[in-house]
Amino acid sequence: MLKKxxxxxxxxxxxxxxxxxxxxxxxxxxAAFPDTQESAIYAILRGxxxxxxxxxxxGEASGGPERKYYRLxxxxxxxxxxxxxxxxxxxxxxxxxxxx
Length: 100
What we know:
Elements lengths: L2 H14 L3 E2 H11 L5 H13 L3 E8 L4 E7 L1 H23 L4
Antiparallel strand pairs: 1-3, 2-3
């Protein structure tokens, strides 16, 4: 599982908790992966939308432009499950080799 897949897994995990504001997603991922460029995270978000794993919706205006929120779709929930299973398999394989 490569870093892109891990970032995608993390984004889907956060959206599985409920609708997420794009900037909040970026902030949370950047805190966990500080060496990751914002543009890479937004590129993954766009790819998730293109793949119909997420959908973007407009939130209420807060004195500025309308906020863009991201929501997990049914296909996104399935993708999340697949990535989570891959992550667990990788973690078990590394553990079996003694890598903690």
